[in-house]
Amino acid sequence: MAVIKPFRALRYADKAGSIAKLVCPPYDIISEDERSAYLAENPYNVIRLELPRGEKPYAEAGRTLHEWEKSGILQQDTQPGLYIYEEEFTAYGQTKRVKGFICRVKLEPFENGVILPHEETLSKAKQDRFQLMQSTFCNFSQIYSLYMDPKHVTRARIDALSQDTPRYEFSDGAVTHRLWIVNDPVAISAVCDDFAARRLYIADGHHRYETALNFRNHCRDEGIISPEPDYCMMMLVDMEDPGLVVFPTHRLIHGLDNFDREALLNRCRETFTVTHEEGTASVPQKLSACYAAGQKAFACYCGGDSWDLLVLKDLSVMQDVLPEKSAASRGLDVSVLHTLVLEKVLGIDKENMAQQKNLSYTRDFDEAIASVQSGKNQCAFLMNPTRVQEIRDVAAAGEKMPQKSTYFYPKLITGLAMNQMNILR
């Protein structure tokens, strides 16, 4: 099944400065102001490679990478290794830790059933990442994937291998990051062998994985004979790691002609129990109670200080509207909302959703409320998070969730370890 192996990571040398000032969050959540701030702190920040700018940004990234390697800012490790990575953070009022390891994973088309996606992707992001890879032959950030290990054999191994002082340990203000490097061939072989019968489930990084597949095919077409484009860099985490946190992504509605709150709720009453509630501060608590009870529920907010709780009366209605889908897909809160409310009641079809003509997203509860109060959006649907087990079951059924169904927190930091492909032509 999944083939994983160690690699000689490209990492920052001490001369580049403090590692805390050289890394950055994923490129797609960084604003231009934030990008400038990272470079103001240290001009060698990995954002110059991961999110290049200029008249020819991708060529600039390739040139910069070459210069940094030549000057010793970046150096490739002398021995292949696995890179154990831990994040410590606070979520829902609790201190949590999630730990996995960074390695190379052999690319497999989704239809092979070895590496499975769970969300739809957008072509624009894939083209951007392809051009960057084409110019640099390097993965600067890792794809985040999960694996099933009921006896937690691999977790026990990486815990034992990360008892000493980490190579890196620093905080970005919200998350403490730690990295250990494992070069012991026996230990590495044992971890790699664990995956011989396992599948991998992509948690975050669908665009980058699809890009890696496209790049692998491009290399074959161009006659690049090194096997390294057959692999991509991944962070692998036990699906039952107690530190895994998924945040909800709320839906924002805008630009609908003749939007009417009462008409919306009257139509929803056909399939939902609708309860009017006072005070938006109570939304998280009410939704959490529904989540704990296994109910399919979300909040509808259209302004003011009141809102409406929508709870699906009977899940069997989803069998009628999505007969071609698995029970796992039909049971998702986002499937219920998209199918029974956005499409059926508001007339926002799948193409509209993909183009975000009348639909946008935010993870921030306060931002969702404020956007309706300001008139920027007509309505907000406030969601519960998708369960990790639901992600697994949808992926295992060979299906994909709607875009923005999950938000794994925290995001993996970029720049601790990079996967350089040593290309032979």
Automatic annotation (TrEMBL):
Pfam families the record matches: DUF1015 (PF06245)
Superkingdom to which the source organism belongs: Bacteria
InterPro entries: UCP033563 (IPR008323)
Name the UniProt record assigns to this protein: DUF1015 domain-containing protein
